[in-house]
Structures are given as structure tokens and as C-alpha cells.
Amino acid sequence: MSRGPHSRPFRTKTLVPVELLGGSCFMTSATWSTHCIELKPHSVIKRFRRGSREECEREWRALTLLSAYAPGLAPAPQSADLAAEEPVVVMSRLPGKPLRGQVLSEQQLKALAAATSEIYAAVPAEALAKVPDRPGQQHELIAKIRAWTPRARPRVSTEVGKAMDCGLDWLARSGFDQVASPDVPRVFGPGDGNLANYLWDGFRVRIVDFEESGVSDRPFELAEITEHVASWVEQPLDVETFLDQFDLSAAERARLLACRRLLALVWLFLLSFDDPQRPRNPPGTAERQAVRLSRLLDRDLRAVQG
């Protein structure tokens, strides 16, 4: 999500409270940039904040792995200083325009799906076994929701509060926090669903920003994209057409719905914290998210009743 809902503070143009969520960066503009990004003609210098060594290490690990197993999909790693007080990664500069804020054509949707499929399948099992899990797994997000609830619930509108209650009720019944490890294949995940990190060059999509990357699974990573606020607050992503590009097993489909619900609930909390006196989001964004979450929660019920 991000950066995703698991990330640390950021500086951003829109969307979510600074103290709660991470931003994102991309190669062609600083609109949503969270770090110090220096653009050179053929390279990008990404300088991390103090205390962000783990993020820098994840970025460098991902670039190195993808350079070996999926060359051209992501920036090529050039150099890094992981021990610096402000860690630095230098990478090649990619062409392309971020998909965020665009109405995506069928060609772009298919290219987005192709890029995500490529990254999920890129790292072979023996190499993946040496990669840590990505941050922001479901247990961490559930813990955040429980910590936020006493603060958020009393201050929200009736519509948002009703959706929160339904989401919390689903979460309590889902057993999601009891699942030690999902029974689906493990893959390499970028860990960030912000469409600003997916660059379209007119022919293909490439991916940037890997500081939240690590071992994950396809349902969780796809939900990161479909439920990220950047996928609907401006120009809505055609989620069903996008997801139709993936051949998911029955277990993956079931987990995808659960992950979408969880991440939609996380985003509802995040958006509810927006200060009406200094809004970072368009008016009614939290209410729109409440409707989105309610539709996701209703899906199984409709199927059973149908």
C-alpha cells in the first residue's frame, strides 16, 4: 500500500495523515516523493532518512535480485552505501509515466498485470528462501487496527462508523489473525500497491520503489494494488478486469477477498484520521471508502443468498 499502510511517516501531496502512513516515489516527478530523490540523466540517487537502513537494505536487495532474475523490469542497481548515516542507493533511471491518476487502457491494464506477474514469479525458490518476509503482513495490520479503534471510532461519521463496525465484526469472525502462514505459494512481492510506482513507457510497465519488499503471496500483493487509495480516489482502476488477468487457485481467490477486506478496513481507518481543518484528501473520501468496504463485506453474503 504506500507506500502502504504499514509504512512510516512521509511527505505527500494528498491522501492520508502524515503521521500514519508512508508515501511513495517514482522516477519522473517528485509529486508523491517520500525521500530525497536526485534525478540524473541516466541514474537516480535515492537517499534514505536516518534510521531507515532496513528500508535501504530491502531496496538494494530487490534491485539486485530483479537485475539477476528479471532484468529490465526494475531499475538496475549501480551502487549503495548501506552503512551511511543516511543510507543511499544509486540505480538506473527508467523511462515512463506513473500509472497513478490515469484512465488505464486495456493495453495498460494487461501490461500492469504482466509486470506484477513477472515480479511474483521472478525469484526462484532457492533464492527466495534467503529473502526475509516483507513488512506489513496481516498480523501487523490487524494489530494497527486494534490500536487505532479506540481513537478513531468515536470521531467518525455515522456512515464511516457503521462500515468500521461491520469491518471489525468481520475481522473478529474471520480468524485471520490465527493463520500462522497462508496456504498459498510464496512469491517475491514489491510490498507497495501505489500505482505511482508502476511506470508505463508506451509499451510495457516497469516497477520502482522496493523498500517494503520481501517474501509475500499473490493475493496479498494484488490486494495491495486494488485497495490502495491511489487506485480509486482519482481515476478508478478497473479492478475486475485487472484481476481477471491472473490464474488464481481456489485458495488464492479466497485469500484475495480476505486480504482486500483487511486492507480496505485499514484504509478506512487511515482516511478517517484526516483533519477536516487541514484536509489532505478530497471531501468525502472516507465515506467513499466506507462504501467500498461495505461492498467487499457483502460479497460472500450475496453469493450464498444467490
Task: Provide structural commentary.
There is one protein chain. The chain has 306 residues and is α+β, with helices and mostly antiparallel strands. It has a domain at 96-305: Aminoglycoside phosphotransferase (APH), C-terminal lobe (Aminoglycoside 3'-phosphotransferase, Chain: A, domain 2, Alpha-Beta Complex). The protein is 42% helix and 11% strand. It is built from 9 helices and 9 strands. The strands form 3 sheets. A 4-stranded antiparallel beta sheet has the order 1-2-4-3, covered by helices on one side. Strands 5-7-8 form a 3-stranded antiparallel beta sheet, with helices on one face. Helix 5 (158-174) packs across helix 9.
Itemize the secondary structure elements and their pairings.
Layout: E1 36-39, E2 43-47, H1 53-69, E3 77-81, E4 88-92, E5 97-98, H2 106-122, H3 125-128, H4 138-152, H5 158-174, E6 186-189, E7 198-200, E8 205-207, E9 214-217, H6 218-227, H7 239-243, H8 250-272, H9 285-305
Antiparallel strand pairs: 1-2, 2-4, 3-4, 5-7, 6-9, 7-8
Helix pairs in contact: 4-8, 5-8, 5-9, 6-8, 8-9
